[in-house]
Design brief:
homodimer; about 300 residues; alpha/beta; six-stranded mixed β-sheet; about 40% helix; globular
Chain lengths: ~300, ~300
């Protein structure tokens, strides 16, 4: 028995390089329906954003215009419409959303700008919305948010503002090394060895410059000493995360740290940080995205 | 006007993962002809090695068997025949070459074994032949050989032996990051900026743990400050080579260092090392391969 799709009071959209996720929202912030597709920004030409969105949300639309609040790479120069970066220090949330040029009168699309830092040069698109969601739920938070992922972010938060941040290409390096380098023969695509992970984190923090040699050792140990693929996988992850922690030390040492992201990844970062004496808390990444989009929708409603 | 191909007294072969190079040699060690193809070990099943070799060298063969001396990945487990690693400390050259199972009676193929190190686990295949070539030409050398490349090697040489060595995945990381990561949008495929390279080497040596953040800065500086592609390319190379130098310091500090490789790469390493106060000398990579294969051929002749 099929049911009529729920209408949305407004629509929340997380639109990254490789994914498109949408939620049919009620005015009170509850979720009526959700959907996703592989129509990420990376595969869409400018004129394909609107059809890709309609494919996913058309059943949620009523007769009049529905507000759609979107974050992520959809607002980049190669996206649907460019939502220029705001510069730190700044609030995570801004009322200056940018309207995307939708032709369908049922769509009123607003895109959340990314955040930039001039020096050291850095940018984020999408993570600022997760930060805004966390701050909306924890308005008095003063500390550091770490958002592990393809491009992990560490952001210093004070008085409701993003003070500074730094991006590490940790996740992308893991994907390239484990999937496309000579290590692909030695690193399993799944499986885990918590002890090997912890030891590698500790090795990398002690001697982070040796990374490129330790990477090759994984291949050599597989050839010479039958290193198992799941152990190699955990060790490669530990080396990369350990090097990130070594560099990000000013962010986490003696600070209140909250990890925001998918549970497998935040779990690894939490284990690594805990071994260094930090006591991170964890927040769910999707929940923070939705909380940030909701906060942006409310600010929009207040300002119009 | 075509000329009759030169016959070879013996054939030297450098057979890596992605290339096959062969030289028609005279008994006195001079080169009569040479050829190459893309039939690297990586694309050949075990039964395709002999045809791939014959394609390249058949014109050089006489009626009787011709000795072929080969180094590189052809001797790996996935190669034509496995030539098991010898363990350091060991001479760079060994008389224990492994015969490959050629059916054509005109071919008498011998494969040079690679070299392994148990701890830290490490392996080389092909570079030991370049080391042997260098030692053949410089029998009293006591110091360090650096062989930059996809997997850069640093080898400590004393009394004609490889005492220890270490491999860094520097070249492969450069290729993956510049060609397949988010940095591909910001890093040019050619062009150079010597000042940016030197500054990046120095930055990486001072703070090698910050690599993954400095990588992303190249993208952010391109977006925010119009960083040029050739500058980004030189800086990415400098960051990776600088991190390698930081880790390899025990190898080069206060040592006689010779760089063996292609001139573009040895030039970059020489610039980086010179800025650190070292005074490296440079030897040509292909010439050292050929010298090593020649030394192996002579030892073979002496022993049979």
């Amino acid at each position: 028995m099929s049911s009529k799709p729920a209408k949305a009071d407004w629509i929340a959209v997380d639109w990254g390089t490789s994914h498109l996720r949408a939620w049919a929202m009620a005015a009170d912030g509850s979720v009526r329906d959700q959907g996703q597709s592989a129509d990420g920004m990376g595969r869409l030409s400018p004129d394909r954003f609107e059809p890709a969105l309609l494919d996913l949300v058309h059943g949620w639309l009523g007769g009049g215009p529905t507000k759609v609040v979107a974050c992520g790479m959809v607002g980049s120069r190669q996206g649907w419409t460019e939502a220029p970066y705001r510069a730190v220090p700044c609030t995570a949330l801004d009322t200056g959303l940018v309207r995307a040029p939708a032709r369908d009168l049922r769509l009123d699309v607003r895109v959340i700008p990314g955040v930039k830092q001039d020096s050291p040069a850095d940018v984020m698109r999408g993570e600022e919305t997760q930060v805004a969601g966390y701050i909306a739920q924890n308005p008095d938070f003063d500390g550091v948010l770490c958002l592990p992922g393809t491009h992990s972010k560490w952001a210093h938060i004070s008085a409701g503002e993003i003070v500074s941040f730094r991006t590490f290409m940790t996740g992308e390096m893991f994907a390239l090394l484990s999937g496309q380098s000579v290590l692909r023969h030695s690193v399993a695509t799944e499986g885990w060895d918590a002890g090997a992970f912890a030891a590698a984190v500790s090795d990398a923090i002690a001697k982070p410059e040796a990374l490129a040699a330790r990477f090759f050792s994984l291949r050599a140990e597989a050839l010479l000493h039958d290193l198992q693929g799941d152990t190699a996988r955990a060790r490669l992850s530990g080396l990369l995360i350990g090097a990130e922690l070594a560099a990000a030390k000013p962010y986490w040492l003696g600070q209140d740290v909250t990890l925001i992201g998918a549970s497998s990844l935040t779990g690894s970062y939490a284990a690594a940080l805990t071994a260094q004496g930090a006591r991170p808390t964890i927040a769910n990444g999707s929940a923070m995205t939705l909380a940030g989009l909701t906060a942006a929708y409310r600010s929009l409603k207040d300002s119009t």
